[in-house]
Each structure stands twice: as C-alpha cells, then as structure tokens.
Amino acid sequence: MTATPLRATPSASRSRTHLPTGWYSAEDCSLEDFRAVVEGGLAETTLEQYPCADALEQGVLVYGSRLRERTTTREGRREVQAELARALADGPGIVVFKDAFTHDVVEAATDAFRAMIEEQKAAGTASGDHFAKPGANDRVWGALDKLAVRAPEVFAAYYANDLLALVCEAWLGRGYQVTSQVNVVNPGGQAQTAHRDYHLGFMDQAQALAHPAQVHALSPVLTLQGAVAHVDMPVETGPTLYLPHSQKFPAGYVAFHQPEFTGYFLEHFVQLPLAKGDAAFFNPALFHAAGTNRSADVRRMANLLQVSSGFGRAMEDVDRAAASKALFGVLSAQAAGGVGERSLRNVVAASAEDYAFPTNLDRDQPIGGLAPQTQAELVWQALSEGWGAARFEEALDAQAARRRSAV
Ligand SMILES: [Fe+2]
C-alpha cells in the first residue's frame, strides 16, 4: 500500500486530513524513502523557521532565553507552543531546553532517586531492566508517585517546572498524565539499538503490523517523551543518540526492526551533550537509542518522562475482571463443546483488557518481550489450557494486584 504521511502545518486552517489508512507491510519500508525524509528534512531546516529557538545544533533545535522572553504573555505562550509542536511533528522531532531545571532542584531529586536505588539493592529487589543487560543499569520504575510519597517537597519543586508544563500542553493539550522512570547507565553500559517509543515502539514487528496505518500515525501524538539530565552528560558518557526527522517516516514502527534501518541510524545519528538540568523532549516516533557510557566514573542519570494524552481511555469504567470471571464458565463449556476459536476470541476481546499498560514495572515485568501479559492473554491461556475456575480467578486477581502501583 501507499501511505501518505500525516503532516503538521503551522496553522490549523487545513481543509482535509491526510490520514493514512490500510495496512503496512515490511516491504513498505524503503530505506531510500527513509533517507529522503531524513536527509531532506535536515537540508530544509533552518533556525529562521523557528524564531523562538536559540540554536540549531546538529539538526536539533535548542531553546533557552528567546523562548523564555516570549512566554510571559498568553499570546506569546501559545505562539511558542505552536512552534514546539511544529518542531516535534514536522521539524527535527526533538527540542532541547537548556537549563530547564535549576541545579538545586535536580540535586534534591537525584538524592531521593539514589536513596531509592540503594534501598532496592539492599532489599534485593533491584529491578531488572528489560532494555539492557542485568547490572549495567539502575532503574527506578514508577518514579513519579514514589517521589511524591517519599519527598513531597522535592516533588513540588521539581514538577512546578513551567517548561515541562509548556511542552506537555503544546503536544498533548490539557489533562496530560506524567510518568517517570529513572535510568542510570553506569560506566561500560552499552548502547541500545535504534528504536521508536511507546506505544507501537513497545511491540515487536508482527504486533505493530497488526495495527492499521492510521494508528501508526496517531500513536505519536498521544505521548511525549522527555529526559531530564541529572548529571552533566558529555558525549563520552553516552547521552541519547537521535536521528532528526526520522519521526516523519510513516512506516517507521515497522522499519526500526529491520537491520538496514538500524545500520543507517548508526552511521547518521547525532549525539548532543547535555548539562545537568537540561531537558530534551522528542516525538516518540523519532528513531533514538541510549548511548554507550565510555566514561571511567560517571553514572549517567536521567529522569525519563513519558507523558501521555489524557485521551486514549474509554468513557466508562468497566470491571473487566468481574466480567471475565463471570464469562469463564460459559467460554470453557463452549471451548469444550467445539465452538470455534474466532467466536471465543471475539468474546474475550469484548470483555477482557487486552492492553498491557499502565502497569507496575517493578512487579509486572515483561517476560520474553517488551510488554507483560495482558488480562485477555491470561483469559486465553486459561481457556486453551483448560484451567478450572478457582485457578483462573486466583491468577486473574494476582495479575490485577501485580499491576497496581505499590508506593
Ligand atoms: Fe526509547
């Protein structure tokens, strides 16, 4: 199929959308097309197109004093937000805010995060990191509510940050939901392979291909990805590698699994050093990867902020566990009686939760993939393995308990 990229414009005056529909295939992933998007974007982008930015460094827009001057009025704020959204959608796909957080605020949060990591180690619960080899990284999953509960004054100082609110509103509108994962890459910690991020970036290629093209276009506008530098991050410490403009390749959630694309990434990425308190925000569809920490002694700490649209949820709260328990007897009998798989799966799809997030990544860790088992997958496992009702209900309750935040 031919998919048309969803292109953003500076104004909201478009008369029709160009939303791609249909299905991607691995054959849609032409490296030549990808290069045209990336290299064309780099060639066309100038600092003058982004009047609120201070600099264009290695193809990345850097914001500081010019942005701050403009955000003192409501009109100026909206103008800045429109520019940021344009930069994230149709421009480089990444913006850096210099000195976004003051050092005292960052250091207070760093102390709290380090204490959490030490406690995890002491308790023997240091969480695995499914993105890296065991031991190379330290992680604090679910760090948002952990910080709020542990150090509310530190939290209040940290999340009072207006640049964070500015860019979250610019991309997601109001009602956004902040989550935070602290990531410490220790000396010797290896680079990640190039990828895109949540939602479709957390799927393997087959799972991504099971979603139609319009979902590939819409997923990036439902999440904003950010990173706050908690230490100085010169290049040898491995700050994140980015490929500006790569967010505009329509089939990118399929392509990043293919070696010719990761190979191209490795030859063309940019890597900006960050100073303590700087923050980078990027379109989750941007190809990126954490870098190798080649320093002797810098434990590279970033607070990764994954901010979600308030949308993407159903209008009604549904007790899907209760529904699944009630239906289990009927479905078990149907399965034993030879009712077809499609019919059974349709009932499970209409009743059980078949999305793995949000969850508690300390306790509900992915096994053999990037996403933990969903409720619907558990229902299906129980049906196909012929479990009894008691075993099923116990497993369903245990899964629900694992998924809840436990601060
Ligand atoms: Fe990532």
Write the layout of secondary structure elements.
Elements: H1 31-44, E1 55-57, E2 60-63, H2 65-70, H3 74-89, E3 94-97, H4 103-122, E4 137-140, H5 143-150, H6 152-159, H7 162-172, E5 177-185, H8 205-209, H9 213-218, E6 223-229, E7 241-242, H10 252-255, H11 259-268, E8 270-271, E9 279-282, E10 288-289, E11 300-308, H12 320-336, H13 341-351, H14 375-384, H15 389-403
Parallel strand pairs: 2-3
Antiparallel strand pairs: 1-2, 3-9, 4-5, 5-11, 6-9, 6-11, 7-8, 7-10
Helix pairs in contact: 3-7, 4-6, 5-6, 12-13, 12-14, 12-15, 14-15
Bound molecules: fe (ii) ion (FE2).
- The tally of helices reads 15
Tell me the helix content: 25-40%
CATH architecture designation of the largest domain: Sandwich
Mean pLDDT reading? 93
Helix and strand sequence: HEEHHEHEHHHEHHEEHHEEEEHHHH
Question: What would you give as the CATH superfamily of the largest domain?
Answer: q2cbj1_9rhob like domain
- Compounds present? fe (ii) ion
Overall geometry = globular
Q: Which fold name fills CATH's third level, the topology of the largest domain?
A: Jelly Rolls
The largest pleated sheet is described as: 8 strands, mixed
- The residue ranges in which pLDDT falls below 50 over 5 or more consecutive positions are 4-11
Helix-strand category: alpha+beta
Provide the β-strand percentage band: 5-15%
Gyration radius, rounded: 22 Å
